[in-house]
Predict the structure.
Amino acid sequence: MTIFIRVAGEPDKADTLRRLCADVHSDDRHAFVRDVDSLLEIPGAPLAYWAAPELIRAFRVLPSFESTGRFAGQGVATADNFRFLRLYWETPGCEESEWFGLAKGGAASAIYSDIYLCIRWGHEGAEFKAWAETLYDNSHWSRITMNYTRYGLPGLTWSRRATGFAARTLPARCVFGDKGPAVFTPSQTPESLLATCAVMNSASFRALLDLQLARVDLAKSFETGAVSRTPFPVLSADDESYLAGLARQAWNVLWLQDSTNEVSHAFTVPARLPSTSPAVQEQLAEVLRNIDERVQRLYGFSSDVLASQYALVDAEDGAGIEGSDVDASDTDSPFEATNLIDHDAALLSWCVGVAFGRFDERIATGERAQLSSPGPFDPLSARSPGMWPEGESRPIAPPDILVDDAGHARDLHSVVGGASALIGSPEREHLREWLAREFFPLHIKMYSKSRRKAPIYWQLATPSASYSVWLYVHAFTKDTLYKVQNDYVAPKLAYEERTLESLRSEVGESPNAAERKALAAQETFVDELRAFLDEVKRIAPLWNPDLDDGVIINFAPLWRLVPQHKPWQKELKAKWDELAAGKYDWAHLAMHLWPERVVPKCATDRSLAIAHGLEDVFWVEGADGKWKPRATPLRPVEDLVRERSSPAVKAALKNLLDAPTVSGNGRARGGRRAASAAATEGGSR
């Protein structure tokens, strides 16, 4: 037997140690008499001297997680998130698209957490695998291919690096990641998965998992090996049914809580609208208590063993995982977006969605019943329950463009105000100004996760934001900017020019101070509109959006049209410069603008060839299953480039690259070099 003395957490460690050395048996709170050999029964043999004998015994008498036929494994690490990952709301939005959900880790969340990331996994991940096999070493590549057959299956997932261990459901048609490993059961029934999820979220399972990590410092993480070696209780049919029912109940509670989060797959209506949602925290706490009690009995632990275990372990001994080890890109709270903005702003954001036809106001008015929750393992829908059902006819077609223009039939302020009034909400004070100057920055923040920004409502504006055109990404066509030019901005400019001429005639040659001020304001407004129209005309001929490229690539050529938001303009300009330099030649936009550069690359980079539908032209699969470049392409490169080139697009691109920067008053200055220098400083001013 060995005596261990623990003084961690004591204010005076030296005094406590001297006292215990004098009479070690006088204080069993700090002194532990242990058979060191018994600690060898814990996988990894950590020096977990504080571990209760009951916990150590579990490693000897119970089967391990993996020996029950359950599987825990890591998955894909993209290493190029910008290319292969998207936030789900920026993808084309159909269940048959090439985008699968991706469990990438994130904050610890028990039972449920929405999967908001997608990975490009069409054609069984062909593009990604072609890219990855040239990047990864054999060990990592073998792990990806080893678990490849499980991609798309329903299962469980957890965050490998987080502040605590928690398992949650993994819907079908998802890929699991390096930091978001997955679990599968032998039968793969929803009941077996939910019961396993319940056990994994119990205090008993976590205690046994934590014991294996006891010697690891702040850099520890919840690796698949530790999970696989954790003792797992034998479940009878009644146990499995009972635990699965509790897990399903918890899942329903959390899904309902997430139904007020606008960026969630579960979203129905904002929290401020009438709701029958119960007090979810109390319900969830009760369910988890019931899970803990049942699982504790299955493990055979006494009622106080777990309490004593966690009373002894504190942050000083490295039991936590907070700090530099937790990847900042993966720490989004599952319900973070619901707390980003106040309720009034959340309601107005929903009203903007109603204005564009994204959200269905009939749910709020009671004309349409709320849908029941899906199953925990059902494939993620491309449309949340709060959106208009796909294919359902509407009395009035939703607008694809809205404008900040009082009196216009598609004035954003009026349409949002009408949606707000429809549900009996009073109009926000200074709503027009709030929409013009505050909503877009808030929208970017709300629609950003995992270091990716993907606003779906785009504000194109003059520098002072005195005039704005609003676009909705899921209503884009190649003619959208021509419509902005011809149906909105040009008529507006003509109207304001007539107003300016009328003012000049009215005030004559000797205007007073007030008249001079009004005249100057109108002149400035007209100058801004002229510059705005010029910029739209530059972009319209080459505009060819493709949602597979993601929001920021599609938005990048329009960087000159967001002078009202300098930080966003700077980000877009940086992406545009990188796109022009050839950094994102996988993008459809790169092929559209620079086919003479992109097509030849497809002959040497198979992943690019797949991205642009040219794999068969340049590559051939050998008898050994490996792909090799064709000695002679099936079609000449020159022909492929010619087919994808347009003189009009090339002329518009040259015009865009040569265009001068626009000053804050809408007047042009400089040329290509001046524009580039000004953009480096943060865009037009």
About this structure: Residues 215-219, 314-331, 333-340, 670-685 have pLDDT under 50 and may be disordered. The CA atoms of residues 25 and 247 lie 44 Å apart. The radius of gyration is 30 Å. Residues 577-680 form one domain.
